[in-house]
Amino acid sequence: MNDPTRRTLLKAIRTTGAAGLVAAGPASAAESGDEPEYPSPAWFAREERNYAKTGEAPAEQQNPVFQERWREQSELNVAEYERRTVEEPGWRSEGNLCREWAEQCTGDPYLYPATEPLYDGDSFYGGVGERERVAFRDRGGARLSGRVWAPADSGPGDALPGVVVTNGSVQAPETAYWWFALTLVANGYVVLTYDPRGQGRSDTTTPDGERGTNANPDVFVTNQVDAIDFFRSTPETHYPYNEGHTDVPAPVVTHNPFAERIDPSRLGAVGHSLGAAGASVVQGLEPWPGRLDATNPVDAAVAWDNLADDVTDQLSYEVVPRVPAMGQSADYYLTPQPKEEPPDPAAKKGGFQRWRAAGVPTYQLQIRGGTHYEWSLVPTFPATAWDPGGDGGFGNPLADHYSLAWLDRWLKEPGEQGYESADARLLADAEWRDRLSFYYESARAFPERDGTEHDCTDIKAGCAPFGPVDPSFRRATDPDDDGKYEDVDGDGECTVVDVQALFANRESGTVREHPGAFDFNGDGTFDVVDIQRLFGEVA
């Protein structure tokens, strides 16, 4: 499978020697075979191996080459922040833990531009993409710091799709998410990354003292709407909330400097942690609370840990599925602890199930051995292997691959990079199955561009490519013309693989809508007895 993510598009040998970084252990040890019985020594041994993956990133970051590059970039970031404090004294960032982008807040130190003579920079900045620093006020008057990114070979009139990326709340600044900005730009998107109020280099409070981040989590909705307004502002239609704030010297920009490269009819919203909860809400807001659009402009969403079904315990909003949305989560959360018993396999599919029940395309992925920090690249925090400065890693490459494929599926147009391959990348089970959790179910319910429906409740267990069940359907077939579709996977043979595929898709919309096609015992319904009957026929 051709993978167009940053890791394959931007391969380059870093002159700092980062290409020589080696993880402390294997980034991926396959976990296959029969499910071990619980409780048993085999179950606990597998859990021990799985939990050990949370220490891969911290172990590989002990490499002296990484440590030196990280230290250099951290010091440069501190110096840059101090210059801003002198030159632009109006900023109110002093209450933010990550205001300097120093130490852990540096993010991946290999994703920065060149800092001669210390570092030649990520190859992205050598001609793949460009970025500009921006600042704009939120609706409460707090100044937000951000970056807009675009392909280097793009220009006015190119009409590219856009994506707004919103941070998580555990003091993860925008630097922690540059990995995906680089991927998106390399694949033909214009992108905004920014620090919400109370995060990173943005203001801690509004002029009247209203806070942000965890003290006021609703900003992950309101600031996301404000960021979308800014992203869609133009030379003719300025961003509205900057007006009337001239009390302190700190520059803001009137509009998105890359506005004329954007197709306003194609917008994706991506968020992590509370930013993911925000994206789950923002995609469905009606009436739209933004100032520059009459209706909600979001066309697709990706929510990293995780797509939400109910956020009322955190936010003053409800989740209403409206556009195609992908959720991603992992085996372990903020403070990983070994599991003592098997969890509920569907525990992290609440958002997926809500979207699926609403009939809106959706996808859910669970990273094996992963943590909350697979999406925010924060040095020393527990996570699976990064391979910093290289092209490997474990959990983050999976996130990169599927996030891009999902946005390509819903935002790209014919002839554009990624349009033709998006469905195939979303169905690349053989390539990525081993990285999926064996505790929590990954699932999908979406149509390919040709109309083929995929409704699978457990991707790791195996899925069949279902579609409309009729004689013209090119995959599931009725080999003996008896009205029963024994060849579930459409490979021309009736084998135990078809039984496995039917079992994996037993709750799919296709099976529910066409029970007669799979009623192998002839009782007029579809249930587990029909799966057993099919097994008896093919065994």
Whole-number average pLDDT? 89
Instruction: Write down the secondary-structure element order.
Output: HHHHEEEHEHEHEEHEHHHEEHHH
- Percent of residues in helices: 25-40%
What portion of residues belong to β-strands?
A: 5-15%
Separation of termini? Answer: 32 Å
CATH class of the largest domain equals Alpha Beta
Low-pLDDT parts are 7-29, 467-474
Explain how this protein is built:
The chain has helices spanning 6-9, 41-52, 56-60, 64-87, 178-186, 219-231, 274-282, 350-357, 395-411, 422-426, 429-432, 496-504, 509-513, 528-538; strands at 129-137, 143-151, 160-166, 190-195, 262-272, 300-304, 325-330, 362-367, 443-447, 453-456. With 539 residues, it is of the alpha/beta class. The chain has a ten-stranded mixed beta sheet with strand order 1-2-4-3-5-6-7-8-9-10, sandwiched between helices. A hairpin with a 5-residue loop joins strand 1 and strand 2. The protein starts with 5 loop residues before the first helix and ends with a helix. Mean pLDDT is 89; it is low at 7-29 and 467-474.
